[in-house]
């Protein structure tokens, strides 16, 4: 029984609307509502539908209904909303049953559910929902804070570099000054010793007075 359960999961029908289940569209624009399905054992006479605001508590409206005979054939339209266009394909690598909603309005915001039923998998059914948000204009990311942070960091780096340069110049000047003082001290000390030596030599060279 556990093995049969794992096998059933492996062959299960799955429906996906992509990595994220949210879409944002500009008012009066066209928006893509993506949907793909996967099945390991293939499909026959597959039925798929798109619903708007499909919930248990609220009534929904069917906006697209299609059927697919087999992997070798493209979907056949059964029913659709005039503003909905099918843009998918099921004969390629992916079983793509995406649609495009044209000229979206604020009233179009809500939940869009992609529902698939595969008779070949004992009429297995699965669905996925995508949430559409309609806005007047796209909001651009505010880079003000980022620019301020970059400016502060750049200023701190500039001050650090300036401080290091000033420090090097000051140390260089101090070193030169100390070297100059050392030369003066050495020169002065040498002169004093020379004069003292000469005086001593003359004093020593004088003959002692004769008695």
TrEMBL record:
Chain ranges of the Ig-like domain: 2-131
Region feature (Disordered): 183-211
PROSITE patterns (alphabetical): IG_LIKE
Biased composition annotated in UniProt, kind: Polar residues: 186-196
Residues spanning the signal sequence: 1-18
GO terms under cellular component: voltage-gated sodium channel complex
Keyword Disulfide bond in record: yes
This protein's record includes keyword Glycoprotein: yes
A Gene Ontology molecular function term of the record: sodium channel regulator activity
Protein localization: Membrane
Key words of the record: Disulfide bond, Glycoprotein, Immunoglobulin domain, Membrane, Signal, Transmembrane, Transmembrane helix
Biological process (GO), any one: cardiac muscle cell action potential involved in contraction
Membrane topology (UniProt): Single-pass type I membrane protein
Pfam families: V-set
TM annotation in the entry: 145-166
SMART domains according to UniProt: IG (SM00409)
Name listed for the protein in its UniProt record: SCN4B protein
UniProt gene name: Scn4b
